[in-house]
Design brief:
It is a single chain. By secondary structure, the chain is of the alpha+beta class. It folds into 3 domains: about 200 residues, FAD/NAD(P)-binding domain (3-Layer(bba) Sandwich); about 100 residues, Alpha-Beta Plaits (2-Layer Sandwich); about 80 residues, no CATH class. Helix content is about 30%, strand content about 25%. Strands 6-5-13-14-15-12-16 form a 7-stranded mixed β-sheet, with helices on both faces. It has a 6-stranded mixed β-sheet with strand order 8-2-1-11-10-9. Strands 3-7-4 form a 3-stranded antiparallel β-sheet. β9 and β10 form a beta hairpin. α8 packs across α12. The radius of gyration is 22 Å and the shape is globular. The protein starts with 18 loop residues before the first strand and ends in an 11-residue tail after the last helix.
Length: about 400
């Protein structure tokens, strides 16, 4: 049932405004904000600006059912393109089928449904030169004004964040014959360990089509696309899959946060409300962004005051609270990146996937309890003890960085 907000009906004198709210960047986070607002607050004058030709770009976003509440599942459901009842992982000394389900959104479905819902309120092919709290300057020199602007154009590079990288290239392949998979393969780390912790991620979309991503937890963020295409071809051949054609390709370099000063990060925002990676809202270890994007969309839709000042403070407070609650994940990231030689990082993940399934689900949902955290770090470490201790102690002086 739509919620009525009297403030959403623009008051007299607001005729100079082009919209009540302008969302810059048509990716996942801003797209879900628009999806919620269009349904819950239809009187709000909304503009969604995307530089590319389609909303959502060329991406696949995935999540586990336990990442979301029942209410969140309900409103997100139309956007979900694929669901599975389980998933698998494979390592040199461990292979496991997990009962927890898995689901994915595709940018193709995302664009189709969101553009149909928003109509002319979504504008693609619109380049943005600069963003301020209440106005946007376009590449053609025009200035659009609103009560507030949300910047969702990707991670802001910051001296206040120390990062590792999760980089990948994926190809959606159509095969000559069925591939035989009935569930996603989230990590196949039996491949050669190159450039850090490497694994192949496979989503079976139909009997003869699948997404194959070559993925690396690496120190450097450079991505050799041609090399990764060759490795995907080798992986497919080794599995006995004959590729009829490549339907599409996606690639990215996601941040893995090792440490940082969250207050300093938000000071750099200059009062501009942000979303998604721009707000630092993603799982620190896995890089998954959909659960945080869902939560942020609900937060924005529930705000009684959508002025730039009020919205900035609400999102900033929300993001800082999540940062402070997730210090343990950044500690684990430092242990992965700084205590294990790159070619042996797979051992850390192999050990993790031997833990109870409920704990693994809570890990992905970023809802670990004290006993979960103790269980993760107890026992014989898969990396040298001295290096692990140095990684634990290697954190900045910022009080926001203490593991929790």
């Amino acid at each position: 049932m739509p919620v009525t907000h009297a403030a959403d009906a623009s008051p007299p004198g607001d005729g100079a405004l082009d919209a009540d709210l302008i969302l810059v960047g048509g990716g996942l986070a801003n797209g879900l904000i628009a999806w919620c607002l269009a349904a819950e607050r239809p009187a709000l004058r909304l503009l969604l600006l995307e530089a590319g030709p389609t909303l959502g770009g060329n991406h696949t976003w995935s999540f586990h059912p336990t990442d979301l509440s029942e209410a969140q599942h309900a409103w997100l459901a139309p956007l979900v393109a694929h669901r599975w009842s389980g998933h698998e992982v494979r390592f040199a000394q461990r292979q496991r089928r997990l009962r927890g389900g898995y689901a994915s959104l595709t940018s193709e479905r995302f664009h189709a449904l969101l553009s149909a819902l928003l109509g002319p309120r979504a504008r693609c092919g619109v380049g943005v030169q600069s963003v301020m709290p209440t106005q946007v300057r376009l590449d053609d020199g025009r200035v659009l004004r609103a009560r507030a602007v949300i910047d969702g154009r990707g991670l802001r590079r910051s001296a206040h964040l120390a990062l590792g990288h999760q980089k990948f290239l994926g190809q959606e392949l159509q095969l000559d014959a069925p591939h035989g998979l009935d569930a996603p393969l989230l990590m196949d780390a039996t491949v050669d360990q190159l450039d850090g912790y490497r694994f192949v991620y496979v989503l079976p979309f139909s009997a003869d089509t699948l997404l194959v991503e070559d993925t690396y937890y690496a120190d450097a963020g450079d991505l050799d696309a041609e090399a990764l295409r060759g490795r995907i071809a080798q992986y497919a051949a080794a599995r006995g899959w004959r590729v009829r054609r490549v339907l599409r390709e996606e690639q990215g370099v996601l941040p893995i946060v090792l440490s940082g000063d969250v207050e300093g990060f938000w000071r750099e925002a200059g009062g501009v409300p942000a979303s998604g990676l721009s707000a630092g809202l993603f799982h620190p270890t896995t890089g998954y962004s959909l659960p945080d994007a869902v939560a942020l969309a609900e937060l924005v839709a529930a705000q009684p005051d959508l002025s730039a000042t009020a919205l900035f403070e609400a999102i900033r407070r929300h993001a800082i609270e999540r940062w402070q609650a997730r210090g343990f994940f950044r500690l684990l990231n430092r242990m992965l990146f700084r205590s294990a030689p790159p070619h042996l990082r797979w051992k850390v993940m192999q050990r993790f996937y031997g833990l109870p399934e409920g704990l693994i689900a809570r890990f992905y949902a970023a809802r670990l309890g004290p006993l979960d955290k103790l269980r993760i770090v107890s026992g014989k470490p898969p990396v040298p003890l001295g290096a692990a201790l140095r990684a634990v102690l290697d954190r900045p002086a910022s009080s926001t960085e203490a593991p929790r």
